[in-house]
Amino acid sequence: MSHGSGGRQTHDLVQDLLLSRLGNKTLNRMEDSAVISPSPGSRIAMTTDSYVVQPLFFPGGDIGRLSVCGTVNDLATSGAVPQVLSLGLILEEGLEFDTLEEIVDSIARAAEEAGVLIATGDTKVINRGPGDGLYINTAGIGFIEDGIEISSYNGKPGDKVILTGPLGNHEIALMKARGLIPFETDIQSDVAPLNRYVKEVLERGGDISAIKDPTRGGLASALHEICGHSGCNVTIYEEQIPVDRNVKAVCELAGFDPLYLANEGKYIILCKPESSSLILDIFGSAGAVIGEVQERGDGKGELLMETRSGGLRRLGMLETTQLPRIC
Amino acid sequence: MSHGSGGRQTHDLVQDLLLSRLGNKTLNRMEDSAVISPSPGSRIAMTTDSYVVQPLFFPGGDIGRLSVCGTVNDLATSGAVPQVLSLGLILEEGLEFDTLEEIVDSIARAAEEAGVLIATGDTKVINRGPGDGLYINTAGIGFIEDGIEISSYNGKPGDKVILTGPLGNHEIALMKARGLIPFETDIQSDVAPLNRYVKEVLERGGDISAIKDPTRGGLASALHEICGHSGCNVTIYEEQIPVDRNVKAVCELAGFDPLYLANEGKYIILCKPESSSLILDIFGSAGAVIGEVQERGDGKGELLMETRSGGLRRLGMLETTQLPRIC
């Protein structure tokens, strides 16, 4: 508990563990607020997420990597180039120092991979009890260049809908880690920073209307939100939606719908038809055009799916809990 | 638990409870990141804090008010005008809806008092267990106008040291709320946003070198840090340090040192001597000049206190825990 009291021990924890791994010119100053110079004319994007995932380590990732990637990916949904993150650690009394060290190392690696700095941070300690180990909050800011207008409100009839890779790996990996899948599988979480791909698409002239990451609630909930915000219908084609063979197998055996499973390294991108091949090229071969945006007279956009059998099914948001605490 | 799953119930919680209280043009868009336009030429200040205070409600404040004031006050230490906050709520399963409502109302009132908007947010739910109810993380950004250079590294020999009001009320109020003070007292926490005062001082030409808020670790730890960063000595005069009569009484009876007690509505300000009366005037009558900054040849600044009896005592950082989870 004394590590959270603001005195010498807090100071030592911050110095030894955090600065040695996350240090940079801004953070090293250890002031109460970090100062950043924006590029001229740019707008600022800001986002935050708390991470309460259990277990802390899971196939393909950990809470530290998740806390960087999730926030960086949210920033890039507005076309922003992520610059800096804040890092708020809430540590449970009794958390092993080695565990914390490993997680902070993972944060450092993910931040480097994403090209962002940890600019400011805070550490609190709560009483032993829940056994969760720690919670992490990251907030982030990024800069949006003039002329870029990407928003879930900007979907336009005629836009293509791209999914940048297969669905469901993160949530299935979490289920496996919690012992909820009673057979062998080596499915790994897809947790990864996606901001560099967005930057490259924009630099190469890609014309993007909207980006959303299908995390909690999955593809269907995220697209449902875009429909509501943009006031357009979206129709997706079941047979074009990429799902890995092993994920599909688990879903069939266990009765999960991959459309509602959480992902941590995938984007839904709405773009002009002429930009779709550039986007698929940059994001890699696992992505696909999965649908398109249609006019909707009354502005009350709906999400529709043409099923494999040729039927048309209306998809809503996730109505029930599939799995809590996956991010 | 289902309120945290990202589906319909999360959506309803956010819509009904949060947007109705905290809504504004930016937040209402409910996008994954908020977009803010900086004023031209300004630098950006960013900060974060997690709040794990127990109990959630205490004399003079609550965790919601604390989570706004703490972050706003950190931003203003760099001379920034706070603009927007992010809000990360970690709710414990079983938290009463009325309690959450009351705390969100308090956040809304404090944000209005401070003149900041909640721009983006996130809600997670953890399993019932610790009994803490909720944790809050806020991150904030503010803009710093050209020519303003306020930093804990900028203390200069000759600067006056101002404390803007009496010490210790927050921590004593928390102790009382936890049943740790076995006699009657009506001491209230001082939790309050201070950013408007800083803005006024700067607009009226006040020349400030450094600002720090003496929260965890108290006045002595905060000044100790300024000494280290600025490489100067600071000498404070015990008899000039304001402490309320009832706080002093509790400290004497219970053996606390007010120099190390946490505050949530006070600043230490280092300024040019000619600015001290302006600052005291703006912050109000309870403040005082409590010391001054002196040259230190080797750059290893120390904190010294001239005691009431005329002795000189060297003060270090807080070495032990006085009370955990006070912010």
Can you offer a commentary on this structure?
The structure is a homodimer of 327-residue chains. With 327 residues, the first copy, chain A, is an alpha+beta fold. The first copy, chain A, folds into 2 domains: 34-143, 2-Layer Sandwich (60s Ribosomal Protein L30, Chain: A), CATH 3.30.1330.10; 160-315, Phosphoribosyl-aminoimidazole Synthetase, Chain A, domain 2 (Alpha-Beta Complex). Helices cover 29% and strands 25% of the residues of chain A. Chain A contains 8 helices and 14 strands. Chain A has helices at 8-22, 63-76, 97-114, 169-177, 195-203, 218-230, 245-254, 276-283; strands at residues 34-36, 43-51, 57-58, 61-62, 81-92, 117-126, 134-144, 160-163, 208-212, 233-237, 268-271, 288-294, 303-306, 312-315. The first copy, chain A, has a 7-stranded mixed beta sheet, sandwiched between helices. In chain A, helix 1 crosses helix 3 and helix 2 packs parallel to helix 3. The two termini of chain A are 26 Å apart. The mean pLDDT of chain A is 92. Strand 1 (34-36) of chain A pairs antiparallel with strand 2 of chain B.
